[in-house]
Amino acid sequence: MNIFPDAPQSQSTQLPAQHFSAIVATPFGAMGIRTEAGLVRELVYLPPSFAEKDACDPVAALAVEQICRYLEQPDFRFDLPLAPVGTAFQHKVWAKIRAIPHGEVLTYGQVAKLVQSAPRAVGQACGANWFPLVIPCHRVTAAGGLGGFSHHDDVDGFHLRVKRWLLAHEGVTIP
């Protein structure tokens, strides 16, 4: 049970594999998919220690299919039924992020100007993203380099390796 209802599970606790509706192997590890009531409830970056898990419902199967298509074709556009989560501000930030084309990045400051806010608030909205890849927060970087990712900023950590892989997959090089 999520004791932090406004924070993604991936931020508060690491769910065991049985809590996912499907798990997809990826070049950077795995993606966990949680579905509920015909909607994608959460997508989670998982380390490679998680084994693949077949989809247990049609929405999870659709998510698996679309994640695989993105992995084959970085310009693929997701079209998944997403659970209604997040604040009005987060939705505003996420809409701007969804509009960033593959192969391009914006800085936290640039997104902040678009939503008339502060870079730190944009970073917090990015970290609270329940649907990575679908809402491509990896396309938001710091002014001087990669920045953090998914509330992680350990340069050699798993999450920043994922961000680097995703950007490289889309043809972006960050110093």
UniProtKB/TrEMBL annotation:
Keyword set, alphabetical order: DNA damage, Methyltransferase, Transferase
Domain of life from the UniProt record: Bacteria
UniProt xrefs under CDD domains: ATase
Metal-binding as UniProt keyword: no
Molecular function as annotated in GO: methylated-DNA-[protein]-cysteine S-methyltransferase activity
Record bears the keyword DNA damage: yes
Methylated-DNA-[protein]-cysteine S-methyltransferase DNA binding domain sequence ranges: 88-172
EC number of this enzyme: 2.1.1.63
BP GO terms, sorted: methylation
Family matches, as InterPro entries: MethylDNA_cys_MeTrfase_DNA-bd (IPR014048), MethylDNA_cys_MeTrfase_DNAb (IPR036217), MGMT_N_sf (IPR036631), WH-like_DNA-bd_sf (IPR036388)
Protein name, UniProt field: Methylated-DNA--[protein]-cysteine S-methyltransferase
Organism expressing this protein natively: Paraherbaspirillum soli
